[in-house]
Amino acid sequence: MDEYVSKGEGTLSYAESDLERILLSKEEINARVTELAEQISTDYADYESLYIIGILKGAFIFLSDLARKITVPHKVDFMALSSYGASTESSGEVRIIMDLRQPIVGEHVLIVEDIIDTGKTLHYLQRLLKGRKPATLKTCVLVTKERNSLDVATDYLGFKIPNVWVVGYGLDYADTYRTLPYIAELKKEVYQSG
Ligand code: PRP
Asked: 0.90 exceeded by the pTM?
C-alpha cells in the first residue's frame, strides 16, 4: 500500500507498515464531510438552534471538521462512550465515560459519531438521549460497516465500508493511529498477534 501513503502533512511513518490499504483518502473524506455539512446546514436552516453532540473519542476529528463547515448557528457538546477497550471485539457493554454538561430537553440534537460497527453504541445512545426529551434527535455517522447487525438508523451517512478493522481520522486500534489523515484497513497481524 506504500504508494498510497502521502508523505505530506499528517503522515505518521511509524504506522505505514501496519496498514493493509487506504479505504478512504483524505480528499474523499474532506469532500464528503463538506457535502454532509451542506446538507445539515440546509436541513436546519429554519431551526432556531442546533445542538451537536460529538461522541468521544473516535468522533473528535470528524466533528471538528464537520462543525466548522456547518453554516447554521450551533452549540457543541461531547459524550465519551466506550465498549471496545484495547480489543477489536465489542464487549457488548457500552460505558459512559463522560456525560453531557447540560440537559437537552427541547433541543434539536444531532449526534455525530465516527463509525457504526456492530451498532451497539449508537443503539444504546439513541435510546438514552431520546429519553432525555430533545425536540428532535438525528444522527450523523461518517462510516458504517456492513455488519451493522442492529440496523441502526442514520440520518446522515458518509460512507459504507467492508467488515474490516479500520483506523485513522479519529478511529483507533488500542488508542493508536487516530491522527492518520485517511481511513485505512489495519493489517490483521497487527491485532491478531496476541
Ligand atoms: C468505537 C467508535 C464507536 C463504536 C462503534 O468506540 O468510536 O463509538 O466503537 O462500535 P459499535 O457499533 O460496535 O458499538 P470505542 O468503544 O472503541 O471508543 P473510542 O471512541 O474511545 O475509540
From this structure: yes
